[in-house]
Amino acid sequence: MTALMELVSVSYRYPDGSVGLRACDVQLRAGARHALLGANGAGKTTLMQHLNGLLRPESGHLRWRGEPVRHDRAGLRALREQVGMVFQNPDRQLFCAHVEEDVSFGPLNLGLAEDEVRDRVAQALTQVGLHSHARTPVHHLSFGQKKRVCLAGVLAMRPSLLVLDEPMAGLDAPMQSDLQHLLDGLVADGVTVLLSTHDAAFAAAWADELHIMEAGRCRLQAPVSRLLACPQAWHDAGQPLPDVVALHAELAARGLLPAHPLPRSMAQLLNAVRALPTPIDQERLLHET
After folding, report:
1. Which of 153, 167, 201, 273 has the smallest C-beta neighbourhood within 10 Å, fewest atoms?
2. pLDDT over threshold 70, residue 71
3. Residue 261 preceded by cis peptide, ω within 30
4. For residue 66, what are the contacts with CB-CB under 8 A and spacing of at least 6?
5. What domains sit in the chain, N to C, each tagged with a CATH number?
6. According to the 3-state scheme, what is the secondary structure of the chain?
7. pLDDT for 177-236, tens place per residue?
């Protein structure tokens, strides 16, 4: 199956000489949840900025639906109509006075009719729960609300690939849950989502595929189901093993839980533990037999 987006042996060096990417290969499967893991400086943000043409490979190339990405004006415009990116710091992305103006900026640049732009803006603000803030000055918003405005601006472009740099950072637990629900809905509608995170437990529970960056390369990429069954792969890629994997392995080794299926989250593991017979249940079974 052809990947939606590919980085093929992409290298990039910043003007100060520091290496951002080093012969990096990444494939993003269409319609899937992708999580990008790695320490600070591993190349996550550099990789993401290549995906919508903010950075241009020093060597190697990108492919969109199997076709090479052209970095001329027309090629970048076509790419950015398909790939939307939400930065970690919303102040880097917001530049209009009011929420509605900021969200409408991208669709207006597409040359869409005013009615179409208005519909897209209203739908995007509703999706992120900010419809009532359409005329609110951006500087009156909280950090979390600013992040949601940035996301609305990208959603109004109707991208096929949504790229989010540390989207959960700075959000409280309810807002993180709301964002996860929104992303799940987008994936259900066919949007491919890639997000970066330092939270291996969240990545294991949420993503379909993991990509682990180290020193400018994608050291490891595989379906989550495969990686959960291979703890050594996490260590080899310099990532901490999610607690759910380590705890399940210990319970299975003690004969308390079966080795399979593998739980992806603590909630799933707790449900498996709760399903175990209690001492009272075991005593009742002995009497019945």
Report:
1. 273
2. yes
3. yes
4. 2, 3
5. 5-241 (3.40.50.300), 242-289 (no CATH)
6. CCCCEEEEEEEEECCCCCEEEEEEEEEECCCCEEEEECCCCCCHHHHHHHHCCCCCCCEEEEEECCEECCCCHHHHHHHHHHEEEECCCHHHCCCCCEHHHHHHHHHHHCCCCHHHHHHHHHHHHHHCCCHHHCCCEHHHCCHHHHHHHHHHHHHCCCCCEEEECCCCCCCCHHHHHHHHHHHHHHHHCCCEEEEECCCHHHHHHHCCEEEEEECCEEEEEEEHHHHHCCHHHHHHCCCCCCHHHHHHHHHHHCCCCCCCCCCCCHHHHHHHHHCCCCHHHHHHHHHHC
7. 888 999 999 999 999 999 999 888 899 889 999 999 999 999 999 999 888 888 888 887
Sheet holding 5-13, edge to edge: 19-28, 5-13, 59-64, 67-68
